[in-house]
Each structure stands twice: as C-alpha cells, then as structure tokens.
Amino acid sequence: GFQETDDWKKVDLLVFNTCSVRQSAENRVVGQINLIQKNHPVKKGLKIVVTGCILYHDDRFLSGKFKYPVLFLSIKELSKWDQKLVRHFPRIEKRVAKKFFKISPRYNSKFQAYIPISFGCDNFCAYCVVPYARGREESRPMKEIYDEVKNLIDEGYKEITLLGQNVNSYSGQRLEGRGKRLKFSEQFPQLLELLNSIKGEFWIRFLTSHPKDLSGELIKAIASLDKVTKYLHLPVQSGDNQILKAMNRRYTVEDYKKLVAKVRKEVPGITVSTDIIVGFPGETNEQFENTVKLFKAVKFEMAYINRYSPRERTAAFSLEDNVPFKEKKRRDQKLNQVLSENIQKQNQKLIGKKIEVLVEKKKGDYWIGKDEGFRTIKFKGGKNLIGKFIDVEITRSLGWGLEGMRVEGTGHRAKVKNKLVVILGPTASGKTGWAKELVKEFRGEIISADSRQVYKGLDIGTAKDLPRGKAGKKVPQFLVDIKEPNQKFDISEYQELAYQKTEEIWKRGNLPFLVGGTGLYISAVIDGYVLPGDQPNPKLRAELESKNLDELQKELKKLDPITYQKIDFKNKRRVVRALEVWIKTGKSIVEKREMKKPSFDVLIIGIDIPREELYRKINKRVLEMIDQGLVEEVKKFYLKGYNFNHEAFSGIGYREISGDLDKLGRSEIENYQISQEVIEKIQQNTRNYAKRQMTWFRRDKRVRWVGDVDEARELIQGFINE
Q1: Which residues contact 538 (CB under 8 A, 6 or more apart)?
Q2: Average pLDDT rounded to a whole number, residues 309-314
Q3: Can you spell out the DSSP letters for 244-272?
Q4: Residue 81's Cα: distance from chain center in Å?
Q5: Which CATH number fits domain 538-592: 3.80.10.10, 1.10.20.140, 1.10.10.10, 3.10.450.320?
Q6: Distance between CA atoms of 288 and 331, rounded to whole angstroms?
Q7: Does 81 or 518 have the greater pLDDT score?
Q8: Whether pLDDT at 210 is above 50
Q9: Are 390 and 369 in contact (CB under 8 A)?
Q10: 352-410: CATH architecture
Q11: Among 191-200, 463-472, 626-635, the least confident range
Q12: Pairing between strand 389-397 and 402-410?
C-alpha cells in the first residue's frame, strides 16, 4: 500500500481532485502539475492521477496540457483505481469493486465530517459543467447516510455537513421501518428528521439548495429540528430576470425574494448566504445594478461572488464572453462593498449577545470557530477547546467576522445551569428505565426522589435498579443507600441533600434529573416546601404511636379532613405527625407548610400510562420481587431485631410479610414461605398506592404528561434550548 507524505519530492503517486467551476481553478491545477513534473527528482517515475470535474474535458485535450503522461480516473470509479494502477505499481492489492457511495471514507477531522448524500446534477444551468463532469443526479439510500452519521456521532463528532449539488432534490430510498413515524413527506426533510433523532449534541448543516426546489416542508424542517442549524446557503446567481433566464435558473428575482422572506419569517434569526456570478455573457451594467439592488433588499449575511468563466460543453460556452475582465473585477468589488456594509450593520446588532461557537482551530492567542449561522468568531481563554461548543459573548465586529469573550463553561454547561428535570410517575411506571436513557443523551445525573431507597439493604422491596450506561458503567445518581434502616431521616434532611447535589451537578456542567415517585420529596425540592419548624412532643408522639393505624386514621379524618385527603394515610408515621401538629397548633399540617421558591427552572415530566397496563406491570413486578428474594430480605432484617415500626420498613411488601412473621417463632420464621394470599395483598396495596400517587401528581398542573420517552426527549431538548 501507500503512505501519505508532505514532501512532494518523495511521492510516487500524486492525486489531484479538481474543481472546474472557473477556468482559473483549472489553470492552477495544470500549472501545479507541470511545475511538479519539471522539478521532481524522478520525472517519468512519478505517477499523477487527475480526477474530479476537470474530466469533463476530452482526455486527448487534457493530455496535451502536460509534458509527461497523466492518468485520468473518474472519482465515481474510485474503487476500481487499483485495477488501473496495478500495472504501474505491481504490489498494489486488488480489491473487490464497490459503488462510490459504498466506499468507507476516511475523515480528516475528529469532530467535523462532510457526508455526500447525492452525486451529479440534473439542472443543467447554462454556465455549469457539473452535469457533464459528474453525470445525472444519484442519491444515497437513507439507511446508508443514517448509519454513517450515527457512527460518527457515537465517536463524538459535533458537526455533520450533508453534501449535494442540489440537496433539495434528494430522492434516496426511505429508511425501512421508520417511514410511518415521520412527520415530513418529502425525502430530504425526512432525512433531516431521521438524522435529528440521533442521540447526541451535534449540528447538522447542508449544502447546497436550489431556490426552485426549496419547499415549505424543508423550511419547516429547518425551523423545527433542533440539531439542524439555522443557516441556509441559497445561490441566486443574479438579480436580473433576463440573466436568470439565460442561465436556465427557472425562477425570477421576485420568486427568490418571496422565498427568502418566507424563510426569515418562519425561521427567526436564520442567516442566509448566496452565490453570485458577475459578468455573465451579455450582462449589461443596468442588469448588474439589479443584482446590487437585490443585495441591498435581501441583506445577505454572506455571499460568494464569482467572475464568469466560460466552460466547454455548457450552453453558455456558445455565447460571447463580452464583459471585459476589468469590468468583472469592478462589479465583484462593488458587490463586496455592499455586502461588507450590510455585514457590519448586522454584526453591530450582535454585540453583547451570547452565541454558541464550535471551536475549529487556534491561531496565536485566539480560538476560532463558527456559530450556528456560519459566522466566524474568535475569542481568548481556555484550554483544549477544539471540537467543543463554547458560549461566547460578542464584544466587537471585525468586518467579516466577530470577536468575543468566553462565557464561563461550554455551551451545554451554560444551557443546563440552574435547570432541573423531574421524571415522576406511579410505582412500576418505568421511571428508572426512562432515566437511564435520558441521562446518557443529555449529560445528566440522577437524584433519587424515593423515600425508601435512601435505606441501605432494602433493595428488592424498594425496586432499586441502579441505572447503568455502556459497558456496565454506572450512570451518576444520588440519595440512594445513604442511611441505615434504623437511622432517622426526614424531609428536611432530604431537601438539604437534594439541593446540595443539584449544585454539585451544575458545577460539573451536567443536568440534574430528579427521578422518583415520592410526591412530598419532589415538592420539597421544586417548590421549596418545608415542614413547620415546631419541635416534636415525645410524650404526645408516644401516646399516638401506641394506637393502631386504623384508630389514627379515624382520628385524623375527624380532626383534619384536609390533611387526611392529601397525605399517605396508610403511612403511620405521617398520620402521627399530622395529628401531632393539629393537636399542638390547631392547624392542618398542610396549611402550616411554607414555600420558599427555589431559584432554578424546572421541567416536570409525568409518565402517562394506562391504568390497566400499570396494574399488569405492578402485579408482574411483585412476582419478580418474590422470585428475587423479597421474603429473604425481610427475614434478614427481622431476625436481626430491627424495629419494623421504623419508617424504613413501612413500605409495601415489608409490612405485609413482617405482619406474618409477627405470628411466628424464630424457627418457624426461618422456614416461612409466603402465601398466595399475602402476595395478592401486596399486589392490591401496591395498586392502591399507585392510585394515590396519581391523585397527588394530577393536582399539579405543571406536569407535562407524556406517553413515551421520545416525547420526553423533545420536551427536555426544548427546555435546555430555552
């Protein structure tokens, strides 16, 4: 095989991949090849391959431009090059020929990738050689593109640019099994939607769009898909209708202006760039001034201005190239001046604004990158920033670019600062499963909101399921297994620890997820809810605790019906506390709660699951707990003498089984087998508990109830981007 080298004097094989949009590009290639052939130490031994658009010329015509033989090989037949080169390099290993799009690419960057989605063109603009050089348009299947992009994102890539001469006319085969779920009907918007669904933090760009094919669906896709950058390159080529007709562009200036106006209306803040050709055959000064008017009207954020260059085989080649070079240069300069003035005005509006930048390189003391709108921005500060999203506050305009100062933290860090996501729902609804998936995608860490999972050793009965990521790596989570089952733990301590953990998570630049089904714990965190500060009365509490739960419930219902409706009245500890507050103060514990609104934003997502499905899952989970050893877990603590009146053991499963054990001697306990009656009782009590949970949660109108994790994902992405 071959090895790359930066020393042209040592090369055995040199490949030129060419562009033929302008004659000047061809001239540079021809001049460079002749210079190398003249000065290379082994002139005749050097093999040079020329590929790309220059091959639209006849081979005989091209051969006459070089002193020594040159190989002309089509880029579309790249997989067959070894068969052509083997006679010059016998040690080349022949490979099985593949179609162009099937060849595995090698990427020059570790965070940016250009992905071809189509090849060739069917538009036949009068000045363009692409249909002759690259052939008719051919699109890659969606699955190939999806798989390539997904692999890149899994490897940490941050920017994907889709390439095609006219991406709007992409017609690749739909990805099987996903079509019915897509909201767009046109194929290119569908492709964008599919790629946007890939998990990860990255941008999607695309080049280039033809105005005649820019549909309303594509505009909606740009507006609604969060990973598709709000940048559109839309070549107009001329601001005069007669010239556009001669160019075979198939739209008018009026069409183009309406289209850009629609784009700017539906995608606020989008940047629009364009291509322009000055000096097209027959272009008068008046027609050129129409292009100047278009520039002033549309206010492009960037434009790439080219001086017309005749290309063989194109329709315009037969026309007289009658605009002098000097005049083309003048028109080029005038448009650049108009463009520069407009960019300066727009850049001034950005001063003081915070913009996310993908850092591409470092030059001197400055980091340099692009924002979503493809503007070049430089700033100082920080280490190892290449390939990262960084928030930058713009401080001044630099003519064509911008300068700013780094805002502390990366783009993600700044977006998630002081934001909290809550995932709640009844027991067995799938909260942990959702959390596992979502924290990986949004760089999250879990804070448990389960009042029983705080206790060590109570694993099976509390359904602990420590979320794990790839390769068994634990997903960060907190407030699980922090207390022994005989230690005191109350809501005030929980609240303090939860706030402490959210601050730590924000400092790491991550997004805290509060996940659980204990409504009181969740309220304590998101509403600043705290219990009244009066001290417990040991004598009164002992008197209340001596009564059974049924007696306490009746007393609470009679004295404080409001609290009876709102608390878990099957939790003896909470019923005792509610009665204690009422007897001491004459007020409901609910009325005495204080709220100290936290200084962070909250998104509350509730899992909306049909009751029948939930009950089936509950029944199944109870059976799984029995199989996993719930009875042995209860017996272990019971035989060690733990007090089962403690809050830790008030959970469902523990109290039913311990109630059976209370009737047995030690030897009988060791041989105890749970009965079907007790299993069904645990199932029934769990279903009742789930019903009470839903009653609690449904009162909160802030909860966004969703039926699947994809809906939750969209809500979280929108919340982060606010």
Answers
A1: none
A2: 90
A3: HHHTT----HHHHHHHHHHHHHHSTT-EE
A4: 38
A5: 1.10.20.140
A6: 8
A7: 518
A8: yes
A9: yes
A10: Beta Barrel (2.40)
A11: 463-472
A12: antiparallel
